[in-house]
Design goal:
Radius of gyration: 26 Å
CATH architecture of the largest domain: Distorted Sandwich
Largest sheet: 8 strands, antiparallel
CATH class of the largest domain: Mainly Beta
Distance between the termini: 56 Å
Shape: elongated
Helix content: under 10%
Strand content: 35-45%
């Protein structure tokens, strides 16, 4: 907690041309409005009153950090909609993202601090992550003994940026830096970046990247996801199929959980590369359950950073059953490739994307490149359980028409890097042909 009342003394003494000295006590109140916003939505504040009693003389009160009240802005869609369309709004310093009638999540200080399952809770009365953050949070492994002599971390700075917002998806970047300086002006110690790609179906794909400026190599880390009011019998650990002839289960790959009396389901599938995972479930007396996923193999890359990806699906229990969760976890670990007829697949640009079979885990989309003005494929058979997103690259601002069989599909929207993206609904089987036609340059 940063907010505090600081006390001290002001001293002065002069010897010439005439002796003069004074010494008096001084106090200053530091109110961290970001902390205040964790308890009270800042956009609802109408007035802020400070009262100081017992003063012998008038004092000056100076504010150096003011946040506008009633500061709301609708970016895409309407939160009051019930048709499943995506909406994004800024409320003070928070970002609200969701799909009308399905779900809503709230970002504050770079964390998801609220999740509402709107199918069964349209009034948003039950925050399923109240008192914690959904995640995936990064938990670094214990420091080596040689690193314990480093100066303590003095400050943490967080930056949240809305990168993309349209009818198909929302992309939010979060960056968190630790510093040796109290005001973040010194050497940064550890850097963590998250990129959240959020689809109106409640599917959230997260890319995680870490780096260290103070160590010769970045520290490995675990990913954690927390949720409220989950009984032990409502937790379903997901694993790979058992080897033939083996009585033991396969390797753990994810977890599905159902908060009680909410009608909601959560799927959490982490990915650190082709390594084994260990899962741990931690509960506290306040009804909070945290799932901790840690890699058990060597997952450091050669660029002095560690990477991970995660698949979160927030949905109604009727949609996200245990059987669907198991198939989705297996698909995310080993994506089913497209049957490409014209064009080619792409791996994307940038670190920590974890592309395989044309599917980029960190974006939650299959990436394809056209052959001149056309690209054609058949969707993977796994698209029967959940919606799948597709991104056509190198469109160059041209108009694109997407056909699923003979039907024109909408919406199709441009991306900031010159492509187009769209999402096909669940049930699109591998017998259908998807064709993207591009206008001539």
């Amino acid at each position: 907690m940063h907010s505090a009342l600081y006390t001290g003394q002001v001293r002065h003494r002069r010897f010439a041309p005439r002796g003069h000295a004074f010494n008096y006590r001084l106090f200053m109140a530091w109110l961290d409005l970001a902390e205040l916003g964790e308890q009270v939505p800042l956009d609802d504040i109408r007035e802020l009153n400070l009262r100081l009693t017992g003063l012998r003389r008038p004092i000056d009160v100076t504010f150096d950090d003011l946040i506008l009240t009633q500061d709301r802005a609708a970016i895409v869609g309407e939160a009051s909609a019930t048709d499943g369309s995506l909406f994004v709004s800024r409320v003070g310093q928070r970002w609200h993202v969701g799909a009308g009638g399905r779900f809503e999540i709230v970002f504050a200080n770079g964390q998801i601090v609220a999740w509402y399952e709107l199918t069964n809770d349209p009034q948003r009365l039950h925050n399923l992550v109240r008192g914690t953050a959904l995640g995936p949070e990064v938990v670094f492994e214990n420091e080596k003994e040689s690193e314990l002599n480093e100066p303590p971390i003095a400050s943490v700075s967080v930056r949240t940026e809305l990168v993309e917002a349209n009818a198909v998806r929302t992309v939010i970047d979060v960056e968190r830096r630790t510093s040796d300086s109290e005001y973040g002006e010194g050497r940064w110690r550890e850097l963590v970046r998250w990129r959240y790609t959020i689809y109106p179906t409640g599917q959230i794909f997260v890319g995680v990247e870490t780096a260290s400026a103070a160590r010769q190599s970045a520290r490995p880390f675990s990913l954690t996801v927390s949720v409220r009011d989950v009984d032990d019998q409502a937790i379903h650990m997901l694993s790979t199929p058992a080897p033939n002839g083996s009585d033991s289960g396969g390797r753990p790959i994810g977890v599905a959980a159902k908060p009680r009396e909410s009608g909601a389901s959560l799927l959490f599938v982490p990915y650190f590369g082709d390594v084994h995972l260990s899962f741990e479930t931690r509960s506290n007396v306040n009804g909070m359950v945290t799932f901790v996923a840690a890699p058990t193999g060597d997952h450091l890359d050669a660029r002095d950073r560690t990477c991970a990806s995660a698949y979160l699906w927030l949905a109604a229990s009727a949609t996200l059953t245990d059987a669907v969760a198991a198939r989705e976890a297996a698909w995310f670990r080993s994506p089913t490739p497209l049957t490409l007829l014209i064009g080619d697949t792409s791996t994307g640009d940038g670190p920590c994307l974890f592309a395989e079979a044309g599917f980029v885990r960190a974006r939650g989309a299959y990436l394809v490149e056209p052959d001149r003005n056309l690209v054609r494929w058949r969707p993977p058979a796994t698209s029967s359980d959940a919606a799948r997103a597709y991104e056509v690259r190198d469109v160059g601002g041209r108009t694109a028409w997407v056909y699923v069989g003979p039907q024109l599909h909408e919406p199709t929207v441009p991306t900031p890097d010159g492509g187009v993206v769209f999402q096909l609904p669940a049930g699109t089987n591998d017998a259908a042909t998807v064709e993207v036609l591009l206008a001539n340059p």
